[in-house]
Amino acid sequence: MKWQRRDAARPPRHRPGIQRRDPWPARRSVAAARATRALPTRGKHARWAPAAAAGHNLPVPLTTFIGREREMAAASRLLATTRLLTLTGTGGVGKTRLALQVAAAQQTRYLDGVWLVELAGLGDPTLVPATVAAVLGVREQPGRPLVDTLAAALRGRRLLLVLDNCEHVVAACAALAQALLGAAPHLRLLATSRQSLGVAGEVDWRVPSLAAPDPRHPLPLEELAAYDAVQLFVERARGARPSFALTARNAAAVAQLCAGLDGIPLALELAAARTKALAVEQLAARLDDRFRLLRGGSQLAAPRHQTLQAVVDWSYALLTPPERRLLRRLAVFAGGCTLEAAEAIGAGGGLKAAAVLDLLGQLVDKSLVVYEAEPAAGAGAAAESEPRYHLLETVRQYAGEQLRASGEAAPVRDRHMAYFAALVEPAWLLRFGAESAWCDRLERELDNLRTALAWSQQGAERRRPAEAASRLEAGLRLGGAIWLFWDCVGI
Length: 491
Fold this sequence. Notes:
Helix content: 40-55%
Number of domains: 4
CATH architecture of the largest domain: 3-Layer(aba) Sandwich
CATH class of the largest domain: Alpha Beta
Largest sheet: 5 strands, parallel
Number of helices: 22
Structural class: alpha/beta
Strand content: 5-15%
Order of helices and strands: HHHEHEHHEHEEHHHHHHHHHHEEHHHHH
Shape: globular
Oligomer: single chain
CATH superfamily of the largest domain: P-loop containing nucleotide triphosphate hydrolases
């Protein structure tokens, strides 16, 4: 009996249900590790408040996230290989929503969590460190710069910090990012901005618009519905009017609307909200007045996201006076332009031609001008690319309004017309078929040629006789030189 009692008191070496104790964090979950991790409260390190069980402060999305599979994969892949990834793009293109989606998918990778810092409402750049500290629960210490306190608190921490809407405080964000990344080797930053931060090691990834169909080529409903822009518009329109559906009857108007709004998610959502009172066909027919049409966004949204006008106003307000002047002048181009054309038409009125290249680059950096490369005229795939620049139609309409308000629309359009008249005057060579490269070049400029011809005849009855005669003469030169080209391409 004694022997039996001793044996009963001693548990078997491998009794079922008793697990071995594993050292943390080899096999323990990230959530469990967060809940029990020792947190410094004294000494040179600041108290770390958010390293708790929640592990993040990301908002719960109230609408579905549509499309963007490739963008999600690309951003996640880049974030795994760089410590500072900045998602840039034009206003309303969906940088914040994409960043939040990527961050949410990354939660299990970061022991100390994923933390969102919203900077859109910040008016004073000096408050950027304090805003970050408030989110992280880091307290300021007397006699010590807050940036140093933040750096000490993050040293050794494994977390993802999302800095949202940095464009209006970009210098302050850049300085803070550089300080924190230098002090915290396991920290990663995901930023959204209309321009990059300019920090060493940063990867600037441009968020594209949603894929939209070409309204000139009608598609079957199944193929049309596969476009991300169409899916977003239809989904949001159903939220405004539950009976809405994509049909054969409205398919052409939906395609025109999605393409005309450049596939910009915010613009599509504002248009969808209008389906309560307007048919899609009516919306598509009023795109020339889009800034008056696309109003009435969510009352809970930031003011700059409640109307399309406010979105572009926000970007325009951040430009320097020379950048604004060039952007206004670029509105006269239809179908984009080359650097040579931008220098010829953009210069003047206090803006030197030599400054246009740098200003154009700055507008590209600030997501207001789109850079694209095309194959050189008449060359094969291996030829060098010819740089070309264009504005999204929404930005172009806004810049055109600013150009008219500035009072310099007429001289800028005169320069545009004179430039393209001079460009096509050698068109007589086409008579002999000796200049196919020239023909290719003019074909890319068709929209600009038509715009220049229209300007030569516009409002002639309201001009002074000398002015009307000068523009009419330039228009005749342009038309006379281009008719051979039109005959060549069959227009």
